[in-house]
User: Which sequence fits this backbone?
C-alpha cells in the first residue's frame, strides 16, 4: 500500500469514528395517537438528516403520565424526550423537571407557534415544551339531519341553539341521538367537557382565595343543563362514553351533534372509517346567552426534554425537526394536507393549501377563542381552561368526575353530585395547604 | 362404588361444561375475531360475529410498525428465566418445609404469603430507586429477578403442598439405603413430584408472561416484553380496536398454544392430591 492510500484510509476511518461519536440513540416516550404514529413512520428522515437513531416507547395515556412522572421524580433517566400535555408542562417546569426550550435557533421560528399554545406550554414566559399538535373543542354536527329538521346551525351557537337542535334531530326509534357528550369519569374525560360547560355558564372552580365554588348557582345551572341534555337527547349508557366511544357512535351516524376535540374532525370526515364523512358541519363551542366565555378547551400534545438527560443536544434536534414547518410539509407531501398535525403553527393556517381543508378555519377559530390565562368570566387564581394547573387537580378532577358520571347514570341527583364534589375538593385543598 | 350416571345427566353436564368453557373463552375469541376486521367493522353496531370481510391488514400494520420478535424474545427470557430461577430456590425451600418442619415453619409460610398482600405499587418507588442505583432499569436481568421474587411465595406454597402429599417414609427408606440429601431430592423426591413441579412451572410461566405492572414500570425501550407491545396499541384519541386486537392476539398466541399442549399436565398437577 502506498503512503497516499494509507493516509486516505486513516482519514476515512477518522471520519467514520467522528460521525459515530456524535450519533446518539434517543428514547422518546409517546402515546398512540394518529399523528404520533405518522411521526414514527417518518423518523428515517430525521435519522438521515442528523445521524441520530430513535427508539420509541409507546404507552397508554395514563400509564405514560405515571411512568414518566415516576422516572423524572426519581431521576431514572430512561427517556430523552417526553410527550406531555398542557396540564403537566407548567407544573413540571416549576419543579425544574424540564429543560428550557428558549434557545432553539432562529430558523425554527418559535414566534410562529400559535400564541394560545405558547402561553399554555410556558412557565414564567419561557417555553418548556414544543407543541406537536394542538386542539380546542368544537361542535361537529350532521348537516343532513339539520336540514331534515329544517334548522341551520349558526357559526357561533348558544346552548339554547344546541338544545333545540338536539331535540329536533333526536329519533330514538331509529337510534339517532341529538347529541353525544362525554360521560366517562376522569379528569381528562368528562371533567374536561363539564368544566368547559361550567365556564360557559359563568362558573369557576375556585375563587381568588382558592375556595371551591361548586356550591354556586352557576355550577348548578351548568351541571343541570348538561345532565338534562345528555339524558333527554343522548345515547343510552352515556355515563361510560369517552372520546373513542363517541367517535364510534358519530362515525356510525348515531349522533346529531358531538362536542369534542377539534382533532376528531379529520376522523369523522375520513370516508374510509366514517359513514357520514360528507355531511359533517362545524361550529364554535356554545355559550350561555349573556356569558362572554365559550365552552372551548385548549390542549396540546407537546414534546419536552426531561432535566438530567445525557442527550440533550440530540433531543433538541429531534424536537426542532418534529415541530418544524418542514415536518408539516413532509407529512403533507406523503399523506396530504388533511393529515398534517394541526393547531401548532400560525403559518399552517396561512397556507392556501391547508385553508382548503374543511375543518381548518373552525379549528383555528376555536383555538383562538380559548385563553388559558383567563378561562372564566370571574377572576380565578389558576391557569387552565378544562383543568386547573395545580398538581392536586388530577385527584380532585377524577373524584368529581366519578360523581358526575354516577349522576348521568341516574344513581344520584345533580345536587348530591355537586355537594359531594364540593366537599371532596374542599378537603383535598385544605390537606394540600391552600 | 361408582355412582350410576344416566345418559341424560351426562348430556346436561357436557352441555353445561361447554357453556361455561365458551363463556370464559369468549373475550379471547372476540379479540381474535376483531383482529380480522377493519377498524370500521370492529366498532359496528350490531357487532359482527362471523360474517364480515376477513382481512389480515391489521397484522400487516402491526408487523410493520413494531418489532414483534424483540418483544416476544424479551417475554420468553423474562418468563422462562424467572420461573427457572424461582424453582431452583423454591424446591429446596419447599423440601425443608415439608419434610423437616420446625416450630416456625407454618409462620414462615404465612409470612411469605403475606408479602403478596401488599399492593405492588406500594413498593414501586423503593424498587425503582434501587434499580437506578444498580443500573438494572430496562434490563432483562432486572425484570427476571423482580418477577422471580414476586412469584416465589406462590411457587414455594404450591411445591410445599405437593411435597406434603409424598409419604416421608419413602424418603426415609432412601436415606436408609444411603442416599445423600442431593440424591434424595434429585432422584427420589423430584421424579415423584414431577406433575406438581410441572404445573407449578407452567403456572409461573403464565403469571410471568401476563405480568403487566412491573414489566411496564421498569422497562423503556430495550427490555420491554409483550405487555408493553399490547399497551402501545391503546389510544386515547383514535379508534384502533382492530389493531389493538391483532397485537393482543399476537401476544397471547404463544402462551395459549403452550397451555393447549400442556393442559393435561396442568390439570393433573392442579388436582394432584385434591381427590383421595
Assistant:
Amino acid at each position: 500500500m502506498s503512503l497516499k492510500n494509507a493516509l486516505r484510509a486513516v482519514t476515512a476511518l477518522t471520519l467514520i469514528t467522528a460521525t459515530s461519536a456524535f450519533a446518539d440513540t434517543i428514547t422518546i416516550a409517546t402515546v398512540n395517537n394518529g399523528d404520533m404514529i405518522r411521526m414514527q413512520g417518518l423518523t428515517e428522515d430525521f435519522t438521515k438528516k442528523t445521524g441520530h437513531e430513535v427508539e420509541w416507547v409507546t404507552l397508554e395515556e395514563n400509564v405514560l403520565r405515571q411512568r414518566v412522572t415516576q422516572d423524572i421524580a426519581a431521576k431514572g433517566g430512561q427517556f430523552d424526550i417526553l410527550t406531555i400535555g398542557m396540564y403537566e408542562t407548567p407544573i413540571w417546569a416549576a419543579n425544574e423537571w424540564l429543560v428550557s426550550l428558549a434557545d432553539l435557533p432562529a430558523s425554527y421560528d418559535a414566534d410562529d407557534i400559535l400564541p394560545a399554545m405558547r402561553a399554555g406550554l410556558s412557565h414564567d414566559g419561557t417555553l418548556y415544551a414544543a407543541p406537536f399538535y394542538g386542539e380546542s373543542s368544537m361542535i361537529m354536527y350532521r348537516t343532513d339531519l339539520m336540514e331534515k329538521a329544517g334548522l341551520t346551525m349558526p357559526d357561533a351557537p348558544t346552548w339554547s341553539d344546541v338544545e333545540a337542535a338536539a331535540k329536533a334531530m333526536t329519533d330514538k326509534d331509529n337510534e339517532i341521538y341529538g347529541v353525544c357528550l362525554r360521560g366517562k369519569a376522569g379528569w381528562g374525560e368528562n371533567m374536561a367537557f363539564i368544566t368547559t360547560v361550567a365556564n360557559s355558564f359563568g362558573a369557576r372552580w375556585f375563587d381568588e382565595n382558592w375556595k371551591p365554588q361548586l356550591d354556586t348557582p352557576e355550577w348548578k345551572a351548568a351541571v343541570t343543563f348538561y345532565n338534562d341534555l345528555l339524558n333527554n337527547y343522548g345515547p343510552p349508557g352515556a355515563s361510560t362514553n369517552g372520546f373513542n366511544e363517541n367517535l364510534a357512535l358519530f362515525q356510525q351516524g348515531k349522533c346529531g351533534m358531538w362536542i369534542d376535540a377539534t382533532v376528531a374532525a379529520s376522523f369523522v370526515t375520513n370516508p374510509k372509517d366514517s359513514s357520514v364523512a360528507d355531511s359533517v358541519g362545524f361550529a364554535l363551542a356554545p355559550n350561555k346567552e349573556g356569558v362572554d366565555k365559550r365552552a372551548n378547551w385548549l390542549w396540546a400534545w407537546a414534546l419536552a426534554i426531561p432535566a438530567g438527560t445525557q442527550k440533550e443536544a440530540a433531543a433538541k434536534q429531534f424536537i426542532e425537526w418534529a415541530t418544524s414547518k418542514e415536518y408539516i410539509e413532509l407529512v403533507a407531501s406523503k399523506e396530504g394536507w388533511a393529515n398534517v398535525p394541526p393547531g401548532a403553527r400560525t403559518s399552517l393556517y396561512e397556507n392556501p393549501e391547508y385553508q382548503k381543508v374543511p375543518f381548518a378555519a373552525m379549528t383555528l377559530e376555536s383555538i383562538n377563542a380559548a385563553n388559558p390565562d383567563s378561562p372564566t368570566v370571574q377572576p380565578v387564581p389558576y391557569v387552565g381552561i378544562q383543568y386547573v394547573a395545580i398538581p392536586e387537580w388530577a385527584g380532585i378532577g377524577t373524584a368529581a368526575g366519578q360523581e358526575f358520571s354516577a349522576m348521568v347514570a341516574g344513581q344520584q341527583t345533580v345536587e348530591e353530585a355537586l355537594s359531594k364534589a364540593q366537599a371532596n375538593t374542599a378537603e383535598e385543598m385544605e390537606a394540600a395547604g391552600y | 362404588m361408582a355412582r350410576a350416571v344416566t345418559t341424560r345427566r351426562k348430556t346436561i353436564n357436557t352441555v353445561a361444561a361447554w357453556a361455561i368453557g365458551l363463556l370464559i373463552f369468549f373475550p379471547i375469541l372476540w379479540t381474535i375475531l376483531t383482529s380480522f376486521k377493519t377498524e370500521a367493522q370492529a366498532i359496528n353496531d350490531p357487532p359482527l360475529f362471523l360474517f364480515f370481510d376477513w382481512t389480515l391488514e391489521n397484522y400487516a400494520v402491526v408487523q410493520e410498525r413494531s418489532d414483534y420478535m424483540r418483544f416476544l424474545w424479551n417475554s420468553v427470557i423474562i418468563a422462562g428465566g424467572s420461573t427457572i430461577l424461582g424453582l431452583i430456590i423454591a424446591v429446596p425451600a419447599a423440601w425443608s418445609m415439608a419434610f423437616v418442619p420446625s416450630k416456625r415453619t407454618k409462620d414462615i409460610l404465612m409470612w411469605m404469603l403475606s408479602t403478596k398482600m401488599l399492593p405492588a405499587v406500594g413498593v414501586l418507588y423503593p424498587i425503582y430507586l434501587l434499580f437506578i442505583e444498580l443500573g438494572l432499569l430496562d434490563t432483562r436481568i432486572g425484570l427476571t429477578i423482580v418477577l422471580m421474587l414476586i412469584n416465589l411465595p406462590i411457587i414455594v406454597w404450591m411445591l410445599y403442598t405437593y411435597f406434603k402429599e409424598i409419604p416421608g417414609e419413602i424418603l426415609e427408606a432412601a436415606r436408609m439405603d444411603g442416599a445423600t440429601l442431593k440424591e434424595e431430592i434429585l432422584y427420589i423426591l423430584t421424579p415423584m413430584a414431577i406433575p406438581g413441579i410441572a404445573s407449578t412451572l407452567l403456572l409461573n410461566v403464565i403469571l410471568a408472561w401476563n405480568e403487566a405492572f412491573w414489566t411496564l414500570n421498569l422497562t423503556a425501550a430495550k427490555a420491554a416484553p409483550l405487555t408493553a407491545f399490547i399497551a402501545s396499541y391503546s389510544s386515547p384519541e383514535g379508534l384502533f380496536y382492530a389493531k389493538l386486537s391483532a397485537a393482543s392476539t399476537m401476544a397471547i398466541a404463544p402462551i395459549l398454544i403452550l397451555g393447549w399442549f400442556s393442559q393435561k399436565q396442568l390439570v393433573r398437577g392442579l388436582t394432584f392430591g385434591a381427590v383421595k
